[in-house]
C-alpha cells in the first residue's frame, strides 16, 4: 500500500542545529511553535509541516521521500552516504572535525602519530579517509558519544570529533592537533520531490536566499 | 549463521505473491506483444567479459561465479546487455528494427545499504536498429523510436493499474545547448568543464556545482589578463563571460527542472534536443495531462546513454521504479553498430504501487470446489478423480479431499 502524503514536509534536526534551523525558516516566513513538545509541527502555511528528528535521521527521511526538504550538517552527509540533492549552504552550524590528544600526550603533531594509533570517533568514514590520504595506518574505536573521555581512560590515544567552541575539549584536558574538515548546515532535497514539487522548493530556496542576503 | 536464514536480500515468493506476479506479467507481456515485440530470455549466467565490454561500471555490482575451468562468469546484472549480444550475433541478420521484450530476474549487489534487494524481477523492451541502411538515425527516426518506446511505457503503466506516477525526462545533450561557451571556456582553460559539471550533477551536489563554475570563471578572468591574444578576441570573450552563457550555467541547476512547457521554453527551438522532447511531451494528447516532468539535473550515465534518458517515479516515495533511454554505442561494443532504445521496470514496485484492488480480486476469486472421498475405497477414489475431471471443465479449481 502506498502511504498518501498531502503536505510538504521539512525535516529539521534536534540538537546543535535546531536553533539555526528555526531562525532560517522564520526568516523565510515559515512560523511555527518551536517550544512545542510535538515532533510534527504545524506552520502558518496550512500545507507545510516541520518534522523534528535526530540529526542523523534527517537524510533518511529525505532520501525516502517522507520529507521533501531537510536541514543537516555537512558532517553527517560526509559520514553517511545518501541519495539526496544538496541544494545550498546555510549560514550556521559552523564547526570543524578535528583530531585532539591529551595535553601531555607524546603525540604533539600529526606527523608523530604512531602506526595503528588508536583513535576514538563518531565519524569512522571521514577519519579513515583523512588518515588514508596521509598514509598513516590507524585503528578506529567507534563510539556514539562522550568521545572526550576515551583518551583519559586509556581506551584510545587520540580522538576525532566535531569542535564548535572548544570548551568541552579544554574541560577534559585535551588539545586540538589538526583540522580534518570544516562543516556547516546544508539544505537537502529528495530528488523526486525536486522534480514533482519543483515550484514549491524553488519558492523556499528563494525565500531563504533573500533572507540571507538582507 | 543459521542455515535456516535466507541470504541477505533474498526472498521466498509465496503463492499469493506469485499469483499476483503472474497476472502482472501477463498484462505487461501482452501489451508488449500487441506492439509487435517478441519475447526472449537470455541465460542467467553470462561470461563476465560481456559486462566488461558493454558496461564496465556494472562489474562491481555483479555476482561473479567461477566454473570448473576457472572461467569467470557473471549472474546477469541487467537484461539489455545480453539482448545486445544476442542482437549482434544470432539475430544479426534478422530484419530491423528488432522488437524484443522480456520479463526476467537480474542479480545485483547494490552499493547502497538502503537497497538490499539482490534479485530483481524486471520487465522491459528493446527496440534495436532502424529500417534504413544508414548507420545514423535521422531526427524523424529518433522521434519515431522515442515515441513508440514512451507510448508503450505509458500504456503498460496504465494497464498495470498505476495512477500516481510521472515520467521524468532528461537528455545527454543538454550541454550542447550551452555548447559554444563550453568550447570557448575549454579551449581557453584546457579543462573539461562539461564533464566536470555533469559528474557533479550526477552526485546531486549543487554547492559543488556553483563552486566549479565560480572557479572556471576565475580561471577565465586570469588567463584573459595574462593572454596575448588580439584584443578583439579578448573583448568578444569577455562579453560572452558576462553575458548569458556562464550565467545560464549558474542558474541551470535550479532552473532546468519542472513542467515541460516551462523548461522547453529555455531551449533553442532549432535544436534537436528541443524537437525530440517536444515530440514526447505531445504524447499527453493521447495519454492525458501531467504525465511528464523534465529534469536536466538528472544526468544519465555518459558511458552508456547517448540521447534521451527517462525515469518512472512515484511521488512521495523518492525512488524510481523504472528507467530507460537511448544507447546507440552499446551495440558497437558487440561488433555491430546500431542505434537502440529501451526501458525496464521493476515488477515488485509495479505491484506495490498499483491500485490496491487490482491484483487482490484474483486471489480471492479463485473459488475452490471440494469433493469428499474415502481413502480406503479404491473404487470410490477412481470415481472421485473421474468426477473431478469433468467438474474442472466448468470450475477453475476442484480439490479431492
Explain what the structure shows.
- The complex is a heterodimer of chains A (about 210) and B (about 400).
- A 6-stranded mixed sheet of chain A has the order 2-3-1-4-11-5.
- By secondary structure, chain A is an alpha/beta fold.
- In chain A, about 30% of the residues lie in helices and about 30% in strands.
- The longest helix of chain A is centred in the C-terminal third of the chain and has 16 residues, at about 200-215.
- Chain A has 2 domains: about 10-95 and about 185-215, Periplasmic binding protein-like II (D-Maltodextrin-Binding Protein, domain 2); about 95-185, D-Maltodextrin-Binding Protein, domain 2.
- Chain A starts with 7 loop residues before the first strand and ends with a helix.
- Chain A contains 7 helices and 11 strands.
- Chain B has 3 domains: about 15-170 and about 255-360, 2-Layer Sandwich (BirA Bifunctional Protein, domain 2); about 175-255, no CATH class; about 370-400, no CATH class.
- The model of chain B has no long low-confidence stretch (mean pLDDT about 85).
- In chain B, the strands form 3 sheets. In chain B, strands 1-5-6-12-11-10-7-9-8 form a 9-stranded mixed sheet, with helices on both faces. In chain B, strands 2-4-3 form a 3-stranded antiparallel sheet. In chain B, strands 13-14 form a two-stranded parallel sheet.
- The longest helix of chain B is centred in the middle third of the chain and has 21 residues, at about 140-160.
- The radius of gyration of chain B is 27 Å and the shape is elongated.
- Classes of the chains: A alpha/beta (about 210), B alpha+beta (about 400).
- Chains A and B meet through strand 5, helix 6 and helix 7 of A and helix 8 and strand 8 of B.
